[in-house]
Amino acid sequence: MINYLVRLVRPLLAAHCDFREPSADLVLSCFLSWRRSVLVLVLLLTVLIGIIDTTIKLAGGPRVTFTILLKLEPELVPVQQTLFGDLADLVWLLSFYALPASTLLAVVFWSRTRMSQSILLVGLIASFLVPVAVALTPWNWWNIEPPPPATIEAKLARQYERVAAGIGWGCYYVLVLSPAVLALVPGVMRACIRVKMLLPEATLPGWFLVAAAPFNGLLVLVTFVALAQVAPSQLLLAGMLLWLTAPLVYMVRARLYTLPLSSANELLTLRRVQALAWAVALGSAACLIVYAATWEAFGLRLVGFEPNSSLFRPWQVVRYLLDFSGRALFVTVVSADVLLRATTSAWRHQREFMSTPMAERHDRLMRKLEEAIVR
Description:
The chain has 375 residues and is mainly alpha-helical. It has helices at residues 2-13, 24-58, 83-108, 113-135, 152-182, 184-198, 204-230, 234-245, 248-252, 254-258, 264-294, 314-354, 358-374; strands at 296-297, 300-303, 310-312. It has 13 helices and three strands.
């Protein structure tokens, strides 16, 4: 059992294959082994999330589901849900099982690359895009519109209650969908790094990495700004600055990622840049964890065990981080599949084009553009 776990984790720790003796079979074997290991890790994170949810439910704690009972007028019964609302609830529930189910099938068929990739792509659409589509549906699709009230006061009361319900559902959707949204850019960046390590001569992964790096910090910048106004702290400021700085490390050394690498020393430098970015990101995480655990004002804490004096429980934070990590790793595998296919496709089309008469004309055009724009 221990030997199996060692073989499973080793591809996650290995940064690249043997650079001294590159071969197509070796690169493909390394990629498939890494891919299987990441998918198994996603399954383990999913199991941990299920254990936390089950434990909370058995202990009688708050569940992750959310229900708002609308009763727009005192004399009316609660608003009835439409058939669309019932079906949307079912689709919403099934979408949360799409990620672990597709991951499990992809692990089973890991050696059949195309089938495994197709399964993960369907899982990505079902687990990421379907909940967003459900959340975007208007309120009147979900509930049967009651008869219009007779008085102006009743109309105002109905409007206020709808606004309150909309705010409640909005907060719920932000909480549930934010791990999926925030995991997209880190997952794509990690995929770019992995493909660049496997194919040091390729330039397309590096350009995608440099283009995606600025958006990694910007996605959570609004959350940081809101926290800075509500619960300011020097630790929050330090964590925010480090989080924004981590992806900029790749931009500072962008030339290293966007050029073909041809030596082991260049690849070693690439690994050092990645280690520096990880160190900055871990420093940001440490500051934010200490901030969340220690911040307190007027007897209210961000994270604590007492529900009356804290906004979040520790297990809720752990579950959120596990959900974010699992989705980021899932996006990493899907993005690596797409990026590897895009890299090979770009290489093939470029090679075919270079053998045509138009290649010389294109070469002259690119030289003029380089002289006018780049230099």
